[in-house]
Amino acid sequence: MTPHASSALRPSERLLLWYFIYAAVLPGVWKESPSPARGAFSVLAAVGVLLFLVARAEAYRPAIISRVRDFLPLGLTLAAFEEMTLFAPRTFAGRLEGGWIRWDHILLHDWHLRAAIESAGWLVPLYLEFCYLLVYGLGTYCVLLLYFKHKRSQIDHFFLVCLTGTLLAYALFPWFPSQPPRELFPTLDSPEVSTWARHLNLWILRRGTIHVAVFPSAHVSSAFAAAWAMFLLLPEQKRFGWGLLFYAISVSAATVYGRYHYTTDVLAGFAVSLAAATVALGLRRSQGSDRAAP
């Protein structure tokens, strides 16, 4: 059987591949890299072979493999996140965090944000912590939503937008080594209300997070990027885009209130998401041009 056009890499797969290429060459140009380049090159080789084999396999089993590829970027995004452990600094100087924490104290203490969140007891803290927890399944939710809305053909566009917001945040981690406020300043403006969702979030972070950087917040950048993607892909049902936008704002509040991130990280994460919004606008113009063509 002769392979057909489906053996080519999808645009989102090419974006992922470029990210792993960046990670592979970074140790050679970044003099502070604590890890040799061979680890990142091994990851690049594994990802490249996987993408090539899966793309070729679709030519022979399109019904199954094409659906595997609809979800493959989710797994590779996790691999991209974990790869940043190769760039964990030997020590943290703490220079960045010392400046960032002052803004947090003003927001949480002087402007009474923490008191406002906790004024109704456990209700709002639980909501915010639950929003933070749901970020881990956000990509899967969006893909399944596109399936349900008969927009499967748009899944790669979703990943182009969302991965731009997510991978760009990851790519910046090595340049801003930093520790979260819950670890570096554990007694300063910490939540005074504890919920099961917070305990679960902390358990996940103790066992599954990387210790490289918190700037910019990938939780925030990916949540906003998902919202921009839904505005693009479901323009006739904007409630999904508005709902995810409200959710992204909630995640932003949760990261600061829960002391997972600094306010500076949140602002930087939002700024990174604007790159994803730019991609979404470019795709919208491209789709408009295609419809206008005779």
Task: Summarize the structure in short.
The chain is mainly alpha-helical. The protein has helices at residues 11-29, 37-58, 62-83, 95-110, 113-117, 123-134, 138-148, 155-172, 181-184, 196-208, 218-233, 238-257, 263-292.
What number of domains?
2
Structural class from helices and strands?
Answer: mainly alpha
* Shape verdict: globular
Cα distance, first to last residue? 34 Å
- Please compute the radius of gyration using only Cα atoms: 20 Å
Order of helices and strands: HHHHHHHHHHHHH
The helicity comes to over 70%
Mind summarizing the main beta sheet? Answer: none
Uncertain regions spanning at least 5 consecutive residues: 1-5
Number of helices: 13
Mean pLDDT: 92
- Hey, roughly how much beta strand do the residues contain? under 5%
Count of individual beta strands: 0
Architecture overview:
- The chain has helices at about 10-30, 35-60, 60-85, 95-110, 115, 125-135, 140-150, 155-170, 180-185, 195-210, 220-235, 240-255, 265-290.
- It has about 290 residues and is mainly alpha-helical.
- It folds into two domains: about 1-85; about 95-290, no CATH class.
- It is built from 13 helices and no strands.
- Residues about 1-5 have low confidence and may be disordered.
- The protein is about 70% helix and about 0% strand.
- Helix 6 packs parallel to helix 10.
- The longest helix is centred in the last third of the chain and has 30 residues, at about 265-290.
